[in-house]
Amino acid sequence: MLLNFKVLPLLPFDTPIQTIAQTYIDNDLMPRTLAGDALHLAYASCYQMDFLLTWNCNHLANANKQQHIRNLNTRLNLPVPLIVTPLQLVTEVNE
């Protein structure tokens, strides 16, 4: 059986993404040493993703960071994606 996969579009990396990520770092939302975390959130926010799926519970899927993310994204006029781990999206199947 052959699986039918759709091609996912590549989201461009442009100046707004860089600027948003730098704003997260400058406002101590993400550490400078982990710029990838800032970029991950910047992509999800800039491209208005419903969810940001991550295993990173230190800097992204962290309940203590949620209000700071909401406040900063509100100041930047950006939506706030729902940041979840894969386990939060799994539904239990009862047979």
Detail the topology: elements first, then pairings.
Blueprint: H1 15-26, H2 35-46, E1 51-53, H3 66-75, E2 82-84, H4 86-89
Parallel strand pairs: 1-2
Helix pairs in contact: 1-2
What count of domains describes the coordinates?
A: 1
N-end to C-end Cα span:
26 Å
Mean pLDDT across the residues is 89
Strand arrangement, major sheet? 1-2
Radius of gyration: 15 Å
Structural class: mainly alpha
Low-confidence stretches: none
The major β-sheet equals: 2 strands, parallel
Number of helices: 4
Would you count the extended β strands for me? Answer: 2
Backbone shape: globular
In percent terms, what proportion of residues is strand? 5-15%
Indicate the percent of residues in helices.
Answer: 40-55%
SSE order: HHEHEH
Question: How would you portray this structure in words?
Answer:
Helices cover 40% and strands 6% of the residues. With 95 residues, the protein is mainly α. The protein has one domain. The two termini are 26 Å apart.
Task: List the keywords.
single chain, about 100 residues, two-stranded parallel sheet, 2 strands, mainly alpha, globular, 4 helices, about 40% helix, about 5% strand
